[in-house]
């Protein structure tokens, strides 16, 4: 039986980089590309339709996490066996999608994360030093809290198995950036296996980047997520979002 691979693009004002991103997606290993537009103010939707993508639009701006929720729901509705998330801002290199999905195809793991922190990929790609250092500190804190050894929790280049996405309650996660951390916590609680591969990234004017103040809020969101995780696993308070479906 063939494995159906669907790439999802959570988009917001990506008109300048969308076509380059789509052109670099290896079509020989991808069955469908879905773009979810979070009420962009530019030509993102028009360009996406011109490229022949399956396009869904939010009637209002709902946030990065909410965009991912729609992406995963639509991919599951299309019977995806593996869902790959790629940001359409061309910061990540879609040409390595075959490397990203290989561990899932071989049934070794249930999720694969592209890590900018392995082999110096972040700084070489131009990540600001303050953001690089904050990433390292947050990742160290999360590893201690969760008992893991991941090199990065904050990458926007990921692949998930259908079984994982059908089991975790991602729809109960944040509508904002902390979604990325919450789904990792759900993955770990569900005892799904994670693997990382090194990736290179590009930082340039058109690449979406979180500014300093939103990064601070994001950091507090991560701390709260770790507190919720500890309360949950110790049985002090059980959070619905960390329970399996069914």
Can you give a write-up of this model?
With 246 residues, this protein is an alpha/beta fold. The protein has one domain (5-242): Spore Coat Polysaccharide Biosynthesis Protein SpsA, Chain A (Alpha-Beta Complex), CATH 3.90.550. Helices cover 39% and strands 14% of the residues. The chain has helices spanning 18-23, 44-50, 64-77, 97-105, 121-124, 129-146, 162-167, 179-189, 212-233; strands at residues 5-11, 32-37, 54-57, 82-85, 111-115, 158-161, 194-198. Strands 3-2-1-4-6-5-7 form a 7-stranded mixed sheet, with helices on both faces. Strand 1 (5-11), helix 1 and strand 2 (32-37) form a beta-alpha-beta unit. Helix 6 (129-146) runs parallel beside helix 9 (212-233) and helix 8 runs parallel beside helix 9. The longest helix is centred in the C-terminal third of the chain and has 22 residues, at 212-233. The protein is globular, with a radius of gyration of 17 Å. The two termini are 27 Å apart.
List keywords for this structure.
246 residues, globular, seven-stranded mixed beta sheet, Spore Coat Polysaccharide Biosynthesis Protein SpsA, Chain A, alpha/beta, single chain
Biggest sheet: strands, sense, closure?
Answer: 7 strands, mixed
Distance between the termini: 27 Å
Q: What ranges have pLDDT less than 50 throughout 5 or more consecutive residues?
A: none
Structural class comes to alpha/beta
What's the CATH H-level homologous superfamily? Answer: Spore Coat Polysaccharide Biosynthesis Protein SpsA, Chain A
How many strand units?
Answer: 7
The helix/strand order is: EHEHEHEHEHHEHHEH
Mean pLDDT: 91
């Amino acid at each position: 039986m063939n494995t159906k691979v669907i790439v999802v693009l959570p988009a917001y004002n990506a008109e300048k980089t969308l076509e380059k991103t789509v052109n670099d997606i290896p079509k020989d290993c991808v069955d469908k590309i879905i773009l979810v537009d979070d009420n962009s103010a530019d030509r993102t939707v028009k360009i996406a339709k011109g490229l022949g993508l399956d396009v869904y639009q939010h009637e209002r701006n709902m946030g990065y996490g909410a965009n991912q929720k729609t992406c995963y729901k639509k991919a599951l509705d299309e019977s995806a066996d593996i869902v790959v998330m790629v940001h359409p801002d061309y910061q990540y290199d879609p040409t390595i999608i075959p490397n990203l999905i290989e561990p899932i195809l071989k049934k070794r793991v249930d999720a694969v994360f592209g890590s900018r922190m392995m082999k110096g990929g972040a700084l070489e790609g131009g990540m600001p030093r303050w953001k690089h250092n904050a990433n390292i500190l947050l990742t160290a804190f999360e590893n201690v809290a969760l008992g893991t050894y991941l090199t990065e929790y904050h990458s926007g280049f990921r692949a998930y198995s259908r079984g994982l996405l059908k089991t975790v309650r991602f729809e109960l996660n944040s509508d904002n950036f902390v979604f990325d951390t919450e789904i990792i916590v759900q993955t770990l609680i569900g005892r799904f296996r994670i693997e990382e591969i090194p990736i290179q990234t590009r930082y340039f004017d058109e690449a979406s980047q979180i500014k300093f103040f939103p990064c601070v809020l994001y950091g507090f969101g991560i701390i709260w997520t770790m507190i919720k995780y500890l309360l949950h696993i110790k049985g002090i308070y059980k959070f619905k979002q960390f329970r399996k479906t069914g």
